[in-house]
Structures are given as structure tokens and as C-alpha cells.
């Protein structure tokens, strides 16, 4: 299935699955709970997804398509590398703020530990995301906006790792504070360290 070929019902089921995982982890994602959440019978779910792994694969495919769309909007803009980096970070933190349950789906290491295919899928989402940040950093180094005495790969690793740590802390706190101001603080630190 292509990343944009979801029916309205499939998107509804996917979003309900994301909500359930966010509320109680993978254990809460049962056909009974999902059918109740969507308002359909359990057998009706199987018209859209063959099993739980297939559903999780489609959840990740759907989320990846949303992430790539957001990244492409920034990458294709006429913004400077500094502005692009700011926009990438702010949009990511805003997306998590708007849907905290997605944090559980994408950043919980143990969620897919028993399924190599799903673990690899999550890893591929991380790789795709980091490739956009890497390009922005390289572009900023070429224009002289960012320092070039540290490799773009290392800078990207530090940015992505810092963002991940910040979001996981927010999740573990029970989403007890606003994430976006923390993202803006992090951005200020990035720019202090990146200045050429």
C-alpha cells in the first residue's frame, strides 16, 4: 500500500490505534478495544488490516508519510538554512505537542522489540528524518551560517539526540509542561553551538 492510499476508514482505525497505544501501550491495542474505539465490529477491522502486525505496519507507514510531508514542506521552501533548521525543530515539537500519543508510538524502544520488521521500520523513519536535518546543516556550512569544524553528521546526531531526549523527558513527566518552549530553548542552544 502506498503511503497516501489510505481510505477514510483506515485513517480512522489508524488514529484510534495510535490513541490506544498512547493511553496504555501496545497491551491496550486489542481488536476488542480498537473496534469499540472506532465503533465497528471486530470482524469489520479485518477487512482493513489482516492482523496486529499489519495494523502496526500501517500505523508507522501513515506516520512516516505525515512526517515526510512536513519535512518536504520545509526542505522545499526558500528559507535560509538557519530558518529551515528552526522550522524543522518547531514543526516537530508542535506535532508532538498536538498529538502526544505519537511519542509513545515512535519513541518507545520496547514497543517493537519483539518484531524486527517493525523495529527496522521505526529506524527507517529516524534515518529519513535525520537526512533532512543533515542536508540543512551541510547547506548552512556551505553558506557559512554554521560552523564547519565539526562534521555535519556529528552535528545532526547531536541535534536529533537532544530533541529525542527532550521529548522523552516530556513524555516521562506525564506531559506535565508545555513542550514547545523547551524546543525553543533547545533551538537557542543549537544556534549558539552552530555559529561559525
Keywords:
single chain; 196 residues; mainly alpha; Tetracycline Repressor, domain 2; 9 helices; elongated
Structural class: mainly alpha
- What is the fold named in CATH at topology level? Tetracycline Repressor, domain 2
Please, what is the average pLDDT?
A: 92
What is the assigned CATH homologous superfamily?
Answer: Tetracycline Repressor, domain 2
Query: How many distinct domains?
Result: 1
H/E element order: HHHHHHHHH
Describe what this molecule looks like in 3D.
By secondary structure, this protein is mainly alpha-helical. The chain has a single domain (8-194), classed as Tetracycline Repressor, domain 2. It has nine helices and no strands. The chain has helices spanning 8-24, 31-38, 42-45, 52-75, 81-98, 101-107, 116-143, 152-172, 179-194. The protein is elongated. The model has no long low-confidence stretch (mean pLDDT 92).
Q: Which SSEs are present, and which pair or pack?
A:
Layout: H1 8-24, H2 31-38, H3 42-45, H4 52-75, H5 81-98, H6 101-107, H7 116-143, H8 152-172, H9 179-194
Short description:
The chain has 196 residues and is an all-alpha fold.
